[in-house]
Structures are given as C-alpha cells and as structure tokens.
Amino acid sequence: MLDADEAVELRTLQARAYGRAGALNAAEAARLRELESAKTRVATPPEATRPEPRAPEPARDAPATTSDAVPVGAAVGAGEEISSPAEPPVTRPPRDDSALAALRQHWRLAAAITGVFVVIGLVLGWLLFADRGPAPMQLSAQQEQWQSAIVASGDFDPGSVRAVAEDEGVVIWFATKNERADVCLVLGHEDATAPACTTQEQAEILGLTARLTKPVSQNQTYDIEAQMFLTHGGEPAVITRSYITSPQSTSMFASPEEADAATTLAEETGLERRTITVVGYDDGVPIWTGVDMSTQRFCLVYDGSMPDPPMACDEGLMLADADRTLVLDVVDDAETTRYEYQFGYGQQYLTVTRGWEGDDAAGE
Fold first, then answer.
1. Amino acid 80: pLDDT
2. Of 228, 246, 264, which marks where a domain is finished?
3. How would you label 247-270 residue by residue, b for 16+ Cβ within 10 Å and e otherwise?
4. For the whole prediction, is pTM greater than 0.85?
5. Are residues 260 and 241 both part of a single domain?
6. Pick from 329, 338, 343: which is nearest to 362 by CA?
7. pLDDT value at residue 84
8. Which domain holds residue 346?
9. 53 lies in some domain
C-alpha cells in the first residue's frame, strides 16, 4: 500500500508520463513502475489463528467438578457464555466471478432455449413468406388417365406435366421439354390433344397460344383457346376463352343454347344466318345484329326468343358510311329502354339507356 506522499508522487509521475507533452527519464520511469506495482499489490492476509477453547466455569448453584467438560443440560449463569471453537473465515468470491460461474454452469440450458427460439422463428418465417407455388388442380379419374397418356408419350420432361386450368371439360396442362429449355401448353379432351411449345424467352415476351375444337353436336363445335404467359418466377399464367361455332355461321356464341337461338332468329326475322352475332347483353338478355337477306340492311334485334322481336334496321347500305349508329327503343312496363349500337370501321360498342324519355334523360 502507498502512503500519502507516495500517492502524490505516483500521480505526478503519471501526469508527466501519460500527458500529451510528458516525458520521463530512466530513473523516473523505474520509480513510476515501482509505485504502480506497490499500489496494485494485494497484501496476503495472515493465516487466521484458531483460538484455544476455554473451559466453561461451573454454574453458581452447581457443585464444582474437576472435569473441564460441561455436563449436558447444565445451566449457564448470568454474564457467562459457552465458548465454541472459532471457525475459519469464509471467503466470498467476487460478484463478477459468481455470475461467470453461474453462466458456465447453465450454458447448455441457455443454448438449448436459444436454439428452440431460432427453430420457431424459422418455421414461422417459412409459413408466412415461403413461396410454395400454386396448389395442384384436382382432376377426375378420367382426366388423370388423359394426363397419364400425355406423360407416357415421352414428349415432355419427366415430372414437368402439370394441370393448371379447365374450360368446358378441356384440361390445360403446363409442361417443359428439352431439359426445361422449352415451355409447352397442352390442351386435352378424351383422345384429342393440342400441344404448342416455344422457348422460355419467347414465352416470357410474347406468350403462347393453343386451341382445341371439341364437338358438341353434328352442327356445332366448342372452340377452346388458351393463352399462357410466364411470371417472373417462371410460373404459368393462363387465360382461357371458349365459344360455339357452326358450319352455317362465321359468328361465335357463348353456349349451344345461344347458337340455337341464332338459328331461330334467322328463321323468324329473315336475317342472314352467317351474319347473326351477339353484341351485348341487358340483364342476361342478348342484343343481336345481323344483315337482312332481302334488303341488305344492318339490323339491331332485342332478345330474339319471341316470334316478332323488337328490331330496328339502318336505312342506308351497310358499308355506305364509315361510322353509323343503330337505335332501338323497347318499352316494358311503361318504361322505355334505348339501345344504341355504333358500328362501322371504328370501334363498335353498345350503349343501354334505361328510363329514356328524351335527349336530356339520364340513364345507364
């Protein structure tokens, strides 16, 4: 330990040694080391001496005995005490050493708890953010047979054939070939298939289209068309369209019932069957157009399911002007609905105005 003078001397030497412009000679540096060593030196406590046990004095009221031992149950007089042998002092470890020892003792438990939390975090992250891809499409037993036949053909990479959509009973499959260099779109129904393939780069830029014709009746067929694009992750995005066609018409219809209605409309109104088509709907009721066979006028027809449907025809020849409008007013329950169909070389569209009463009427 340092006395007061040595402590002052130590602080002076440290200020000169560790100051910004301080410097010590060899003797002063040696003295500084001597003082710092003396300051940090811990004196070893002398070994505790064990005091000799003192024999208790006999109690006042008890007869004196020649034995140094105190009988069991003997009373101790006031102001007297029984001395016990001195126990050695207990040395408590420093607090930091106790914490370090406890950490060493329980490090396995701490590591196990940390590992459990890490695993839980990984599982939750996978459940929330993992891209597990689209769910597989459920196929009927018959459709699974169609898929098995496509796989057995060997035209595509093993394990790449995957059903992605269905339209009017026709299944659309995605597949790859040439070790994933090419992507394919395959349409299948019973024994008929319509594959189309291109490179992955072309599919990402332009997409890929395939079409399959499914017979409906002797005079009608369903045309199913599928268009596929690839996402940034390489997954297929498919859009499908289906329509009814027949040899008697170049028009396309949404259902066999609609195609039959076009045939009936031709018989009832005298419109050319090949020119009849649907241009829009009003609450599910079709609005038709067609060319009158006798006058070659372009006509707009409402519904068409009745013997004498509401119809309005253009007064001029069909191709006389670039853009024209057909107007048809239908009265139902004292309310007038106006149908305006603009046609010609420009964009063609149908406007429905409900509750029409004049040019200033508001409608939809």
1. 46
2. 246
3. eebebbbeeeebbbbbbebbebbe
4. no
5. no
6. 338
7. 46
8. 252-354
9. no
